[in-house]
Amino acid sequence: MKRGGSDEAKRRAGEAAAEAVADGQVVGLGTGSTAAHAIRALGRAVDAGLDVEGIPTSYQSRELAREVGVPLTTLDDATPDIAIDGADQVADGDLIKGGGAAHAREKLVDAAADRFLVVADESKLADRLSVPVPVEVLPDAREPVAASIRDLGGEPDLRLAERKDGPVVTDNGNLVLDCDFGEIDDPAALAADLSACPGVLEHGLFVDLADAIYVGTDDGATVRE
Ligand code: 5RP
């Protein structure tokens, strides 16, 4: 379910958000190609003397942070001052995330941060949320949760690995149902309904969590507070 604009626009958004990180801060490190630009920019800033620690939201962001030299910590030992993370769709400050199947840890880290900066290119902006909502489910809960999703008016689709030789398995050992609800009238109500389903570990609706949206274009980045 990947969407996206140019890599240049993603880079502009990621690098602009990385500039908001101050010396001594703990940073939540988001997942995906846009957040990766922020992690690389932080790595360069660390090389230049910035003192930061990162809390990764996925195996992928942890590996990249290690590669570019961002020191790491955990939620057991620190609270993020700021988090920088991408999104699959942004509407009225609410988000759908989980295109990289990392939304459970992303929500944990992004919600814990004092400030959560979203990085996105213009293709992610919409008037209303409408792309399928990723729902991470315990493997044994796949069918019961799929039935609950249908009761809520959605159409669940088990996410398959790229080679279609099996399902995507998250960093937490679970499965992902991409759930098409069409245009979502009330994201907060749907988020509450999804959270209430037994067997749902986490869903990709991020309602009222973002503090600023950094929107990249091929020419620069703008910030929407
Ligand atoms: C991963 C995510 C990503 O942040 C989201 O899919 C956006 O990715 P990209 O920046 O590559 O378009 O939610 O679970």
UniProtKB/TrEMBL annotation:
It comes from Halorientalis pallida. It comes from the Archaea. Substrate binds at residues 31-34, 85-88, 97-100, 124. It catalyses: aldehydo-D-ribose 5-phosphate = D-ribulose 5-phosphate. The active site is at residue 106. Homotetramer. Catalyzes the reversible conversion of ribose-5-phosphate to ribulose 5-phosphate. This is Ribose-5-phosphate isomerase A. Belongs to the ribose 5-phosphate isomerase family. Its EC number is 5.3.1.6. The lineage of its organism: Archaea, Methanobacteriati, Methanobacteriota, Stenosarchaea group, Halobacteria. Gene3D superfamilies: 3.30.70.260, 3.40.50.1360.
